[in-house]
Amino acid sequence: MLDAEAGHPGRWRRELERRQAILDEAKGKDHRAALALLGLVPALGGELPRDELVAFVEGVRDDRKRHPLVRAVAADGRAQLHEDAGELEQAWKAYADNGRILSWQVAGPFDNGNRGGHGQAYGPEREAYEVGQSFADGKRVGEPVAWQAYEAENTLAGGYLSFDEFLRPNEYVTAYATTWIRVPKKTRAVLHMGTGGAHKVWVNEALVGEGRAYRRPTPWQEAYAVELDAGWNRVLVKVGCELGSWGLFARVSDAKGAPLEGAQIVGSPAVAKGALPVAAVNPKGLDVSIEEDPDADAERLRKQAPESLLELFEAAAEKEAKRTYANKERLALPSGDGRQGADAVALTELYHWIAPFGADDFTARDAARAAHAASASTRSALFLALAEDDPARARQALEAGVARGRERLAGKGPGQPASPEQARHEAALVAQMLIELAYANANLGLNRRAEALVEEAAQLAPDDALIELARLDELGQDGLALAALAWIEDLRGRYPHSATVMREHANRLFAVGRV
């Protein structure tokens, strides 16, 4: 049911409205505005008219009052929309203008058995760079590996450099990528990184950053402060892999996160021999690492860290926690409306989107538990469920969130929605959690319970197309294929821009032999 005047604009338009509300509240340099942009294109691309999404991201990208990092996230979103539309030349330019590093040379694979490749210095570390050089210590004995040019014009993938795409084998391996950045004068800059595995980053001959997490790569996981000399500077990145995604994102910015003015980034510069820095970064082949002082003051280290999305959100959550304890608010019960612990919940949401930790690191889970303890809101329960590593505890978090949402919508207890709009968003959030619970129950064989939860979700959010798809799937499973087809055809009329509905329509046509 679509009825915008009655507060039922449809799932995807309501999500865009929710994100707009974040922008309206997080004004000026407020870093939390990034939560309106992270995941926007995957969530809404192909579901709403493209020009609306373009206007949304361009409005943030071009707003000079916004934080430079928030504007950078918006600029990435604009590039993604170009890419999704097949406008590869415009997408390449948009990514490049935002500081994304798209031009590389890559060498590999090298061995990473038992994660040993991180500390093993292979040829690209030990030897000075030369055009056409090859290395004898590759993963496959007797098969030298050489530098290969990688240009992203036709394989943008969000600015992602994928080793998986053309290096084999691609399991239990490591590889190197190198490029050069030219700046007109000595410059302080930041390298924003995202990697699928353990990594090291050198600028010229200095090791500027490393990490040991094996994770899903996203663009905003790390940030490393660097000093760029006037002229050309070499960047060398090493990334390991076991079984997951193998590759990296990289972006260079000024100290505040804005694109670096006057920078030129080229993977294979056409310059005279001797014009480029090519020295070996680890000529002695040592297991080099950045030493961390376990006794160092955390606050001092944070002040020394470059400005990044992660640093901004973590600092705000830490400040909120200190303020709460100073005011002894810990003695009061959480309001349940999201006001208490707002920065802690925002941090858990950021962790969800950028995935900075490996599967063996429970920082995100523990932060979500602490945030829910402080907030006790429906939304904090959702992100706790998403962060839990134990399916049973994830289900408990969903059940607690649904119970809390039911109370708020019924006008019981503290933290009731302050406006009809807030009530609609709360209802949609509860409906989303009910669907997650329904799938969890179905996986346990509790089909009647699952059907009841789907029905309740439909009552709360009658304009949610995904809930309708879940219900018509039940029809199909009950043998009512033609009824399911009639329903999806009705959905096509109500959601003409939805790629999700179009795909399901095609599946239903195939199921009844109408292809």
List the helices and strands and how they pair.
Blueprint: H1 11-25, H2 40-44, H3 50-61, H4 68-84, H5 88-97, E1 103-111, H6 123-126, E2 134-135, E3 145-146, E4 148-151, E5 161-162, E6 173-183, E7 187-195, E8 199-203, E9 206-211, E10 222-228, E11 231-241, E12 247-253, E13 264-266, H7 298-304, H8 309-326, H9 342-354, H10 363-375, H11 378-387, H12 391-409, H13 420-443, H14 447-460, H15 465-477, H16 481-494, H17 499-511
Antiparallel strand pairs: 1-4, 1-6, 2-3, 5-12, 6-11, 6-13, 7-10, 7-12, 8-9, 8-11
Tell me about this structure.
With 515 residues, the chain is of the alpha+beta class. The protein folds into 3 domains: 4-98, no CATH class; 104-283 and 296-303, Sandwich (Jelly Rolls), CATH 2.60.120; 311-463, Serine Threonine Protein Phosphatase 5, Tetratricopeptide repeat. The chain has 17 helices and 13 strands. It has helices at residues 11-25, 40-44, 50-61, 68-84, 88-97, 123-126, 298-304, 309-326, 342-354, 363-375, 378-387, 391-409, 420-443, 447-460, 465-477, 481-494, 499-511, and strands at 103-111, 134-135, 145-146, 148-151, 161-162, 173-183, 187-195, 199-203, 206-211, 222-228, 231-241, 247-253, 264-266. α3 runs antiparallel to α4 (68-84) and α9 (342-354) packs parallel to α11 (378-387). The longest helix is centred in the C-terminal third of the chain and has 24 residues, at 420-443. The model has no long low-confidence stretch (mean pLDDT 92).
